[in-house]
Amino acid sequence: MNTYVLSTSQIPRRSFAIPHLPSNQPISWLRSGFDDLMAAPITGLLYGAAVAALAFLLVSLTVGINRFFFVPFIFGGFLIIGPILSVGLMAMAKRREKHPDRHPDEHPDRQREQQGAKEPADTVRRILAVNTSSLSLMGLFLLLVFINWIMLSNLLFGGVFHELMPTYTEVRPLPVLFGQSWPFALVFGGVALVMAVLVFRLTALALPMLVDQRVDAFNAAFASWRAVGDNWRPMTLWALLIAALTTLGILTYFVGLIIVTPILGYASWHAYRETLIPEGQTSER
C-alpha cells in the first residue's frame, strides 16, 4: 500500500492511502454502480436521459450546420467530456453512502414526496458547492481538451484525405478510413491513445475526489495520476470498460446512454473510494 500526501501548503497536508487492488476490481465497481441505480432508478435514469439528450443535440447541431466530418470525431470527444457530466451522479452516490436507508424515489404521501424531491437536489448542490471553483477549472480543462481533439482530428483527416469539408455522402466510418490509409490509422490511433491515457490518469479519480474533498484541482489531478499509475492493471480494465460501455451507449442512437451514464457515474465514485482512502480521518461529507 502506497501513500499520497497533498502537496499544497494552503490546505492541511492530508494523506491518502493507495491500496493495491486486484485486476478485476472494476467489475465490483460496476455492480455497486448498478446497485446505486436500482436504489433510485427514476433519478438515475432521468440524469442519464439528460446526458443522452445533450449528446444527441451536439451531434444534431453538427449535422445541421453541414459539418458532417466532425461526427466520427465527436464520439471520441464525448469520452473526454463525459466524466464532468457525471459529477452530479458522484454527489448522489456520496449522499447515498451517507444515508443508505433514504431512497429519493420512494415517498408514500404527497408531503414527503415534495420534501423528498427537493432534499436530494439540495444535498447534491451543497456537496458540489464545496469545490465549485475547482470543479469548474477541471471542466474547463476537459472542454479545452475536447476542442483541441476535434481540431487535431480534423487536421489529421484533412492532411491525409485532402477533404476538410466532405459532403454527407462522403463521410465514412473510422474503420473504413483506417482501411483506406494505414498512416492515418497509425497516427490517429497513436494520438488518440496518448490523449486518452493522459486525460484518464489525470481525471479518473480527480473528479470524485473534488466532489468528496475540499481540495484544489491540481492536487486532485496529481493524486489521480499517482493512484491510477499504482493500480495500472485494474485501471486499464476500468478505462476499457468505460470506453466499451460508452461506445455501446452511443451506437444505440444514444438510448443506451440513459442506462450507461448513471452506472458509470456511480461506479466512478466507488472506484475513488476504494483507491484513494483518507488516512487518520474521515472524508469530508
What this model shows, in words?
The protein is 71% helix and 4% strand. About 4% of the residues have low confidence. By secondary structure, it is mainly α. It has one domain.
Secondary-structure map:
Layout lengths: L1 E4 L9 E4 L6 H15 L1 H24 L6 H11 L5 H12 L11 H20 L2 H30 L12 H7 L1 H22 L2 H7 L4 H14 L1 H20 L5 H19 L1 E2 L7
- Helix and strand composition category: mainly alpha
By DSSP, the count of extended strands is 3
Summed up, the domain count is 1
State which percent range the strand residues make up.
under 5%
What distance lies between the first and last C-alpha atoms, to the nearest angstrom? 25 Å
Largest β sheet strand count, sense and barrel closure: 3 strands, antiparallel
Helix content: over 70%
Strand order of the largest sheet: 1-2-3
Question: What keywords describe this structure?
Answer:
mainly alpha; 3-stranded antiparallel β-sheet; 3 strands; 4% strand
Question: Short summary of the structure?
Answer:
By secondary structure, this protein is mostly helical.
